[in-house]
Amino acid sequence: MNIVAWIVLGLLAGAIAKAIYPGHQGGGILGTMLLGIIGAFVGGTLATFLSTGTLQFTATTLSIPGVAVAVLGAIIAVFLWNWFSRRTA
């Protein structure tokens, strides 16, 4: 059941982040899901670091605050992906 929650969280956070972030992001449904899952890890790690001061590789849960943190992490992931792909192209 945990894997299904990760897929749902990834789709939800990735879709919201793609809708918020300006410009066109390709990738389809799998790219959106992967973006959301990466965002959950990035957001969870940043939230843990800011609240406890320790750097731990954690992810958010499927809840309202968890989705919000995952969306923020996914926006950061989209920004970094666009920044690195623009520099190399």
TrEMBL record:
<keyword id="KW-1003">Cell membrane</keyword>
<feature type="transmembrane region" description="Helical">
    <location>
        <begin position="29"/>
        <end position="50"/>
    </location>
</feature>
<dbReference type="Pfam" id="PF04226">
    <property type="entry name" value="Transgly_assoc"/>
</dbReference>
<keyword id="KW-0812">Transmembrane</keyword>
<feature type="transmembrane region" description="Helical">
    <location>
        <begin position="62"/>
        <end position="84"/>
    </location>
</feature>
<keyword id="KW-0472">Membrane</keyword>
<comment type="similarity">
    <text>Belongs to the UPF0410 family.</text>
</comment>
<protein>
    <submittedName>
        <fullName>GlsB/YeaQ/YmgE family stress response membrane protein</fullName>
    </submittedName>
</protein>
<keyword id="KW-1133">Transmembrane helix</keyword>
<dbReference type="InterPro" id="IPR007341">
    <property type="entry name" value="Transgly_assoc"/>
</dbReference>
